[in-house]
Design goal:
514 residues, alpha+beta, Beta-lactamase, Lipocalin, 2 domains, 15 helices, 23 strands, 22% strand
Length: 514
């Protein structure tokens, strides 16, 4: 939607205007055009240098054609990043899952407002009423009642299957109002992927590959890391300039597992802005595209006043907003060492993809603003420079926050028990088991069993009954594990303080098993 009047116009003319024409009419205005390939090259090179990214690939499309494909830096040591380099596009995968569901809707295998339990009888939420009323539309629009990122530790680095994650999500507490509050949810996309599997007798990966990637000619793209061919032009993820292990999804692939390149994503973008068709092949119907690109859940921050922020929303697999009077349809993606952005202005048939193999999303947002500024005839380079200055302050504040946390350690304290008394088996009712063991060196070691390959580490005494753990996962800050005693002064439980917005470690409550 572009404004209140526009939103009502869209709502009441869907049946009067052909869907494809409607898609291309939203946000139409004059005197705007894509920046030149040379200018895009200048912006990308400046952003790469000023923001310190490892590698960056950018592609810009206009009116069904490619304006520019530009790359900067390295995919891995000694290997340049190119427009053909595959990266994990993370949550930009959600748009593919929404499109896969739309294809099932177009083929009458299901409907947007079908109840989830009618297609997945074992599905449960902790609230029986929500379980009985959750629809497929709810799954894809982040309004299920769970808070943002709730339950993500169930799949992150874990060996749980999709079925096991679905079984465990039934205990997650409902903390938001069903259908009226936005809570960004990866687990609901897992559920949507499972429904695709049930209705098509194909895995989500096979369906996306056979029904979307192959017909579009996205021949190098893959649904997950495991199927990327050895020797492929593939970027490695980096944090602070260092290579880290790639995250190979076991569960929750429909939320974030796709690997693609800036070049092949231009095909995806052009097909969508052509009403869902590519070279006479209809991927999704224009009607389904309208459904995915209309507001379903309000995401606007409260108390913003009369600003374009008031009209931010989420469709089905896409965020919706307004830029200079034009409707924007986009999504970001982030996994450790990879960040992505696909942004479309359907009314102008203009769009771009930004992929980087670092862990700093500010450069993607800065380039997005610069490209839209250039499209509007403004100076995008000034925007890059201004945000680069802001980034320096953000980076400085982040370092200060780490130093402050380090400084909160209470010197001169000791644990209340002998080290061996903390060792044992513990369990969180939702997440699963954890083991605290005594090493040969006389130190404690922590392993979160479901993610034993990623979430483990030696425990160093911090203060009182709290121990510090540096997980080998460089994406995570250091964790503080605090033990509690029962009424008999026995070590009874522990909680984890690992302050990162992406995962709620604080929700875990590990009780000692007897």
């Amino acid at each position: 939607m572009n404004a209140p009047s526009r939103s009502y116009w869209v709502r009441f003319t869907l049946k009067l205007v052909p869907a494809a024409a409607l898609l291309l009419s939203i946000g139409a205005s004059a005197a705007q055009q894509a920046p030149t390939a040379e200018r895009i090259q200048e912006l990308v090179q400046a952003a790469g240098a000023d923001y310190g990214v490892k590698g960056l690939a950018v592609a810009v499309v206009q009116d069904g054609g490619i304006v520019a494909e530009v790359a900067y830096g390295e995919a891995s040591a000694g290997n340049p990043m190119t427009p053909m380099t595959l990266t994990n596009i993370a949550s930009c995968s959600k748009a593919f899952t929404a499109a896969a569901v739309a294809m099932c809707v177009d083929e009458k295998l299901l409907a947007w407002d079908d109840l989830v339990i009618d297609h997945l009888p074992e599905f449960r939420m902790s609230d029986p009423w929500i379980t009985a009323h959750m629809t497929i539309r709810d799954l894809l629009s982040h309004r299920c009642g769970l808070a943002t990122f709730a339950g993500d530790l169930l799949w992150y680095g874990s060996d749980y299957s999709d079925d096991e994650v679905i079984r465990r999500l039934a205990k997650l507490p409902i903390t938001q109002s069903f259908r009226s509050e936005f809570g960004y949810q990866n687990l609901m996309y897992l559920v949507a992927g499972k429904i695709i599997e049930r209705k098509t007798d194909q895995t989500w990966s096979d369906f996306v590959r056979k029904r979307i990637m192959i017909p579009l000619g996205m021949n190098q793209s893959r649904p997950e890391a495991q199927s990327v061919s050895e020797g492929a032009d593939r970027a490695l993820p980096h944090i602070d300039g260092e290579v880290i292990p790639d995250h190979e999804f076991q569960a929750c692939k429909p939320a974030a597992s796709i690997y693609s390149s800036a070049h092949e994503l231009t095909i995806w973008m052009r097909a969508l802005m052509a009403g869902g068709t590519w070279q006479t092949k209809e991927i999704v119907t224009p009607g389904s595209l309208v459904e995915m690109w209309r507001p379903h859940t309000n995401t606007a921050p409260s108390g913003t006043g009369w600003r374009t922020d008031d009209f931010k929303s989420y469709g089905l697999g896409w965020f919706l907003s307004i830029d200079r009077g034009n409707k924007i349809v986009e999504h970001d993606g982030g996994m450790p060492g990879f960040l992505s952005k696909v942004s479309l202005m359907p009314g102008k048939r203009f769009g771009f993809v930004l992929l980087n193999n670092s862990n700093d999303g500010i450069v993607n947002e800065a380039l997005k603003r610069a490209l839209y500024a250039e499209y509007a005839g403004e100076d995008g380079m000034k925007i890059l420079q201004r945000i680069a200055t802001i980034k320096k302050r953000i980076d400085s504040d982040a370092k200060k926050a780490i130093a402050k946390r380090e400084g909160q350690r209470r010197e001169g304290t000791s644990a209340s028990h002998e080290i061996k008394d903390y060792a044992g088996d513990y369990e969180d009712d939702i997440y699963g088991e954890a083991t605290v063991s005594l090493t040969e060196a006389g130190e404690l070691s922590l392993v979160l069993v479901p993610a034993k390959r990623r979430l483990f580490g030696t425990m160093k005494h911090w203060h009182n009954n709290t121990f510090r753990v540096n997980f080998p996962d460089k994406f995570l800050p250091f964790a503080l594990v605090s033990f509690k005693l029962d009424s008999q002064s026995n070590v009874a439980s522990f909680k984890i303080d690992c302050p990162i917005a992406d995962f709620d470690f604080g929700a875990l409550d590990f009780q000692r098993k007897h």
